[in-house]
Structures are given as structure tokens and as C-alpha cells.
Design goal:
Helices cover 74% and strands 0% of the residues. By secondary structure, it is an all-alpha fold. Helix 2 (23-44) runs antiparallel to helix 6 (110-133) and helix 5 (81-106) runs antiparallel to helix 6.
Length: 152
């Protein structure tokens, strides 16, 4: 019984280690890392009200990393993963850039400014992710069946 658990664990780790070597895997892992840095900086700031974007994008990046690493995007065909990932990255990039510019203009303490600078870098990284995801949108998507099997 423990052999199958060890095989599944090894299989999961091999999928993650293989995915992190791809360009998309590196970008998603870097997004996770920079979101953690921004989260720590904003949490250490005197005005920690800017944590929402960093937390949300961190959660979405982790979810998409493991979805793509475990190849669930190929097993769930009724979701257009290209558009979903593109919208996640584009919205995240826009939110990080706007939030960071607001924080920089308002000024503040050292951790808040550091969080803003890392937030700008995160916004650029998310925009790059949207840029590299955009060519995959041309890939055809098979729509889900809408008719009942009883009508056949």
C-alpha cells in the first residue's frame, strides 16, 4: 500500500520538476516568489492595506502552477485554459502596476516603498506572462457538448 503512495509522490514530484524547467514553469515559479516578497514587504509596512492583490495573485499563481504541472489542463477540456491563464496574467499585471504606482505616489515607509518597487517588477512579470500566453489563444478549443445524450 505504501509503495503506491511512494510511486504517486515520485510521479507528482517528477511532474513538478519537469514542468519547472519549461519557460512557463519558470515564469509561474518566479511569479510565486515575487508575490511572496511583495506580500512580506506590504505586511511589514505601516499601512498593510495593500495585501489583497499580492495574496490573490499568489493563490492564483500557485493554483495554475500545479494545474499545469499535473496536466489537469489537458484532462479538463471544457475550460479554455489559454484564455483563463491570459486573463489571470493580464489582470494581475494591471493590478500590480496600478497598486504599486499608487503606493509610490502616496509615499510611506521603507517596506511600503520596497513592496511598491517589487510590485512594479511583479506587474512587469505578469505582463510578460500574458505576452507569452497570447500566442496560445489561437489554438482551437473543442466546445463542450450541449445536447442531452437522450436526444440521440
Amino acid at each position: 500500500m505504501s509503495d503506491t503512495g511512494a510511486e504517486q509522490s515520485a510521479s507528482c514530484m517528477s511532474l513538478v520538476s519537469a514542468y519547472i524547467r519549461t519557460r512557463k514553469g519558470i515564469v509561474l515559479a518566479t511569479e510565486i516568489g515575487i508575490c511572496i516578497i511583495v506580500l512580506i514587504c506590504y505586511a511589514a509596512s505601516n499601512t498593510p492595506g495593500y495585501l489583497g492583490v499580492a495574496i490573490t495573485e499568489l493563490i492564483f499563481s500557485v493554483i495554475f502552477f500545479f494545474l499545469f504541472a499535473a496536466r489537469y489542463d489537458q484532462q479538463i477540456p471544457f475550460i479554455h485554459w489559454g484564455w483563463t491563464d491570459f486573463l489571470r496574467a493580464a489582470i494581475g499585471g494591471g493590478l500590480f502596476i496600478i497598486l504599486s504606482l499608487v503606493c509610490l505616489i502616496r509615499g510611506g515607509d521603507g517596506p511600503g516603498i520596497a513592496g511598491s518597487v517589487f510590485g512594479l517588477l511583479a506587474g512587469i512579470l505578469f505582463a510578460y506572462d500574458a505576452f507569452i500566453t497570447f500566442p496560445t489563444l489561437r489554438k482551437s478549443h473543442a466546445p463542450a457538448a450541449t445536447e442531452s445524450p437522450d436526444n440521440i
